[in-house]
TrEMBL record:
Residues annotated as domain Fumarylacetoacetase-like C-terminal: 30-225, 247-400
PANTHER family with a match to the protein in the record: ACYLPYRUVASE, ACYLPYRUVASE FAHD1, MITOCHONDRIAL
Catalytic activity, reaction form: oxaloacetate = enol-oxaloacetate
Protein name (Swiss-Prot/TrEMBL): oxaloacetate tautomerase
GO terms for MF: acetylpyruvate hydrolase activity; metal ion binding; oxaloacetate tautomerase activity
Family (UniProt): Belongs to the FAH family.
UniProt lineage: Eukaryota, Metazoa, Cnidaria, Anthozoa, Hexacorallia
Catalytic class of the enzyme: isomerase
InterPro entries: Fumarylacetoacetase-like_C (IPR011234), Fumarylacetoacetase_C_sf (IPR036663)
Record keywords, A-Z: Metal-binding
Any Gene Ontology CC annotation: mitochondrion
Listed EC numbers: 5.3.2.2
């Protein structure tokens, strides 16, 4: 089971106009995935359903360049492959209309969305699990990616063949014409919740097919029409320990969660608990704002929480608090007021999972990089805030911050 831990990129590397988009893997801040976006091959094309697209996020540390090996976590016998057309954002935007969406496309890429279903679905329950998909989609090497394909080389992204072979046997063979939600719709929808920034990657979904499992020692070869082809072997070994706030559209219930943030100061993977604190570079006071009704709807469907947790302004954050100023992070007072009424008043001494455990656990599945942020959970007292109210929160006597809530 996961504790309430959210990993986000804390680096101040906002994409700026004029960057070399061929290096999007190096500076892009988000990978946005779309699930269940293909109708069965050959079935009649119909208008998009009323229901919103299924959106999830992957950390950029999942990128794997050609020449690398896909790593299946130890304790797993297999993972699944999904070949996809990736859309590389070339111009930053928010609330983008469908009519202008293609102006924000800077190019394309061939991508694989590798998934560990055991970390998403509990086999002992129906396919509804009230947890995000972070570990199942976010392990290192989970997004093999090609070089940038210039936009001009794919004049019609709605008519591109996608195919994938495992050990020479065809497993996926489809066409982007079968996408349910087309690229302009996806760009417009996602940008209503979060800014799409230059260098971000939008994975548009994978064609329907039969079993998609791959095992250690196999090879995946995939292609996008005749534009590009790439091959990735599946590695035979990989260690894994099993075990102003702005209300987003469609949200009627917004909740606050005051938290201690841990800022990673040294990159590492497979970090032991005994060595974990050496990777801490400092701390921050943070608010994890949650669109609770959107989250509840996602839980019922077994969907990730990306829209409920990932909207713009969902993570108010303080400046860095030097590590030496908090000698004992397991005994820090956290508090929060709404319109001067105390709502949360607790201490990190009530953590279930202490910081070394969290760092060690997360780093078994994904690299923790310098500048990453771990949100460590929130004390009791989470409650609703409404437009016009003001949140004031603090971390002991070290820092205090105030945020108004607006539509």
């Amino acid at each position: 089971m996961l504790s309430s831990v959210l990993l986000v990129n804390f680096q101040n590397n906002m994409a700026s106009k004029g960057r070399d988009l061929s290096k999007f893997v190096e500076f892009g801040r988000k990978i946005i995935g779309v699930g269940k976006n293909y109708r069965p091959n050959g079935s009649p094309q119909q208008p998009p359903p009323v229901e919103d697209p299924l959106i999830f996020l992957k950390p950029s540390s999942t990128y794997l360049r050609p020449g690398g090996k896909i790593k299946i976590p130890t304790g797993r016998d297999e993972i699944i492959h999904e070949v996809e057309l990736g859309v590389v954002i070339g111009k930053t935007g928010m609330n983008i209309s469908q009519s202008e969406a293609m102006d924000h496309v800077g190019g394309y890429a061939l991508a694989l969305d590798m998934t560990d279903l055991d970390l998403i679905f509990d086999k002992s329950e129906p396919k509804t699990v009230p947890y995000p998909w972070l570990l199942g989609k976010g392990f290192d090497t989970a997004t093999p990616i090609s070089d940038l394909i210039p936009k001009c080389e794919i004049p019609d992204p709605n008519d591109v063949r996608l195919w994938l072979k495992v050990d020479g046997e065809m497993k996926q063979d489809g066409n982007t014409c079968d996408m349910i939600y087309k690229i302009p719709h996806l760009i417009s929808f996602v940008s209503c919740y979060m800014s799409l920034e230059e260098g971000d990657l939008l994975l548009t979904g994978t064609p329907e097919c039969g079993p998609r499992y791959v095992k250690r020692g196999q090879d995946i070869t995939c292609g996008l029409g005749d534009k590009i082809e790439m091959t990735f072997p599946i590695s035979k070994c990989f260690f894994f320990v099993l075990l102003p706030d702005k209300i987003p559209p469609g949200c009627n219930v917004l909740h606050h969660e005051v938290e201690l943030g841990v800022v990673i100061g040294k990159t590492g993977v497979f970090i032991s608990e005994s060595d974990a604190m050496n990777h801490v570079g400092g701390y921050a006071l943070a608010l994890d704002m949650t669109a609770r009704d959107i989250q509840d709807a996602a839980k019922k469907k077994g969907w990730p929480w990306s829209l409920a947790k990932g909207f713009d302004t969902a993570l108010p954050i303080s400046e860095l608090i030097p590590k030496e100023e908090i000698p004992d992070p397991n005994n820090v007072h956290l508090w929060l007021k709404v319109d001067d009424e105390i709502k949360q008043d607790g201490s990190t001494q009530d953590f279930i999972f202490k910081i070394p455990h969290l760092i060690s656990y997360i780093s078994q599945n994904m690299t923790l990089e310098e500048g990453d942020l771990i949100l460590t959970g929130t004390p009791q007292g989470v409650s609703e805030v409404k437009p016009g109210q003001t949140i004031v929160c603090g971390l002991a006597d070290k820092i205090q911050m105030t945020f108004p809530v607006s539509l």
